[in-house]
Write a structure and sequence with these properties.
This protein is α+β, with helices and mostly antiparallel strands. The chain is built from 2 helices and 11 strands, in the order ααβββββββββββ. The protein folds into 3 domains: about 5-50, no CATH class; about 60-135, Resuscitation-promoting factor rpfb fold (Single Sheet), CATH 2.20.230.10; about 140-204, no CATH class. The protein has helices at about 5-25, 40-50; strands spanning about 60-70, 75-80, 85-90, 95-105, 110-120, 125-135, 155, 165-170, 180, 185, 200. The strands form 4 sheets. The chain has a 3-stranded antiparallel beta sheet, with no helix packed on it.
């Protein structure tokens, strides 16, 4: 190979390399050993790390809450009880009401609630106290001592019917002055009129 021909080939290779490098720079593709600008790298990194702000999660839930209803206390007159006697004839019992609330939460934290409905699931029972109004009868008078020195009237048997100006049945409406607690059997004449129904048994 002659010197002139070899030189021409070297010049051709050098021109081809120059054209290749020029084309690579024009297309924007980085070449080996060529550093990118620092500002371009930082901008690309910042854009890739940005995230959208999440929207809050709002939830509305109905919640039932049970509450007691207190019972009332009432009194009624009762003629079957003596004055001064009070008896609870019906025991009181609390009722129950249920309130439905609409509870709003934002990201799991309650932010408010409103009443939707309120219903009575169990009605309360009033406590009833019976108050006595009956006046008890007076106690029976004590039998009077036997008049005229003692003795029992022979017209009667059983309990001793004293000999007196008048004898009445104890606990009855008579006014004495002597009394006898029956039953007393009439065996003679009913001089004190103790056997009002005439069946032979007095003060029964």
């Amino acid at each position: 190979m002659s010197y002139s021909r070899a030189r021409s080939m070297m010049i051709g290779v050098a021109l081809a390399a120059t054209v290749l490098v020029t084309a690579s720079c024009a297309s924007g593709a980085p070449t080996a050993g060529t550093a990118q600008p620092a500002g371009l790298v930082a901008k690309t990194t910042a854009t890739a790390s940005a995230k959208p702000t999440p929207k809050p999660v709002v939830v509305v839930t109905n919640v039932d809450v049970a509450e007691p209803i207190p019972f009332a206390a009432v009194s009624v007159d009762d003629a079957n009880l003596d004055v001064g006697q009070n008896v609870i004839s019906t025991a009181g019992a609390e009722g129950t009401k249920v309130t439905t609330w609409a509870v709003t939460t934002v990201d799991g934290v309650e932010t408010g609630r409103t009443v939707v409905t309120t219903t009575t699931s169990v009605a309360p029972v009033d406590q009833v106290t019976s108050v006595g109004t009956r006046v008890p009868p007076p106690p029976a008078p004590e039998p009077a001592p036997v008049a005229d020195g003692g003795g029992c009237d022979s017209n009667y048997s059983g309990p001793c019917v004293p000999i007196a100006s008048d004898v009445d049945c104890a606990g009855g409406s008579g006014n004495g002055p002597a009394y006898v607690a029956g039953p007393v059997f009439v065996v003679g004449s009913d001089i004190y009129d103790l056997d009002r129904d005439g069946d032979g048994v007095a003060c029964d």
